[in-house]
Design a protein that fits this description.
The complex is a heterodimer of chains A (122) and B (233).
Chain A (H helix, E strand, L loop, with lengths): L10 H14 L12 H8 L3 H13 L3 E4 L3 E4 L3 H25 L4 H15 L1
Antiparallel strand pairs in A: 1-2
Helix pairs in contact in A: 1-3, 1-4, 2-3
Chain B lengths: L2 E11 L5 E11 L3 E5 L6 H8 L7 E6 L2 E2 L2 H4 L2 E4 L11 H11 L5 H10 L13 H13 L5 E5 L7 H13 L6 E5 L3 H4 L5 E6 L2 E7 H8 L3 H8 L3
Parallel strand pairs in B: 3-8, 3-9, 6-7, 7-8
Antiparallel strand pairs in B: 1-2, 1-4, 4-5, 9-10
Helix pairs in contact in B: 5-6
Classes of the chains: A mainly alpha (122), B alpha/beta (233).
Chain lengths: 122, 233
């Protein structure tokens, strides 16, 4: 299946986010091997150069390590993965709070709603 | 040397009143998948026909890999026309053999593999194939060449979404950092994420040449949406 991508944002940035997500969610575990640029480009149905650019960005951030003989691996630095996961979580929370505030809720009310929902889920 | 195509002052007029391509100067690198976009009558097909030597420029020049258009460049340019050009009474395997005889860079095993992956029987005559299957076979023949430049004129027009996906995947899977693929299309939205760069043509002139992500970054919209805005009538 081709990856669903937004049409109004740069493609490479969305590929970076998507692969980041796949790593922090454990789809590709720490130290695990990643598919080649070509394979992943075909899977996502995107341009191989764009995928290459996304990989370069992930390498810069340290999440991906290139080994000459082994191809590309996910970093073994679990603290880094955790840190990126935490960062993504904070982004989601911020976005959620902003949307709730647009709906007119105060901080306290938002927390209350979260608590109620969590209780009903359990 | 990273340049593949060098176009300088390229002009084609069919008569005094109609200038189809008007003074285009453009350099395209190797290893890119480039969209050639523009409204009907903006000169896309005329430009393509000059690239593969089917039309002679009125003025200006084209060089591919440092050579002017001629037998040497034709041997290295694979062209998918915007219409079906395969003889109806021939079988698929006869056309595979024909392409093999005609083009030195044609890889017969690759063509047969791709046909097999689509369950197309090489013994079938073209006249019995559906429109979509004909398009796929034509694309397979073109992409089975090991060319420097692939010029695809409307490769996804008139085929169903699944066939479109197959065609786009074939283009991605055949990606080669030494070759460039030039794709002319109106269906920008379908093809956008496969492209590195886009060329916008208008009234025979070059209106814009930039990367897909540049447009998205700069205008916060897809190339498709941007195109509609620029060429709104």
């Amino acid at each position: 299946m081709a990856w669903e991508l937004d049409s109004d944002r740069p493609i490479y940035a969305q590929l970076v986010e998507r692969i980041q997500m796949q790593i922090v969610s454990g789809m590709y575990p720490p130290g695990g091997k990643l598919p080649s640029v070509r394979e992943l480009a075909a899977l996502a149905a995107v341009n191989p150069n764009t995928m290459q650019k996304a990989f370069a960005e992930l390498e810069r951030s340290g999440l991906i390590v290139t080994q000459r003989t082994n191809g590309r691996l996910v970093t073994e630095d679990e603290a880094l993965i955790k840190q990126i996961r935490q960062g993504l979580a904070e982004e989601h929370v911020k976005e959620f709070f902003n949307k709730m505030k647009e709906l007119g809720f105060t901080g306290g009310e938002i927390v209350e709603i979260i608590r109620e929902n969590q209780a009903s889920e359990e | 040397m990273n340049e593949l195509i060098e176009i300088v002052g390229l002009t084609k007029s069919y008569d005094e009143r109609s200038v189809a391509v008007n003074n285009i100067t453009l350099t395209l690198p190797k290893g890119k998948i480039v969209g050639l976009l523009g409204p009907n009558g903006s000169g896309k097909t005329t430009l393509i026909k000059m690239l593969n030597g089917l039309l002679k420029p009125t003025r200006g020049s084209i060089k591919i890999n440092g050579r002017f258009i001629g037998p040497e460049t034709k041997a290295r340019v694979a062209y998918l026309p915007d219409r079906n050009c395969l003889p109806e009474y021939r079988t698929v395997s006869e056309m595979v053999a024909y392409f093999g005889d005609f083009y030195e860079d044609f890889e017969k095993t690759r063509a047969l593999e791709m046909l097999q992956s689509l369950n197309i029987d090489p013994g079938t005559k073209f006249k019995t194939l559906s429109k979509g299957t004909k398009e796929k076979v034509q694309l397979i023949l073109v992409m089975s060449r090991k060319a420097d430049l692939y010029v695809l004129d409307e490769p996804i027009a008139g085929v169903d979404p699944a066939a479109r996906d197959y065609i786009l995947r074939t283009i991605i899977n055949n990606y080669n950092p030494e070759a460039t693929v030039l794709i002319s299309t109106h269906l920008i939205g379908d093809i956008e994420q496969v492209l590195d760069e886009v060329i916008f043509m208008r009234y025979g002139q070059l209106a814009l040449y930039t990367s897909v992500d540049n447009i998205r970054e700069k205008y916060g919209k897809s190339v498709d949406a941007y195109f509609r805005e620029v060429f709104a009538c």
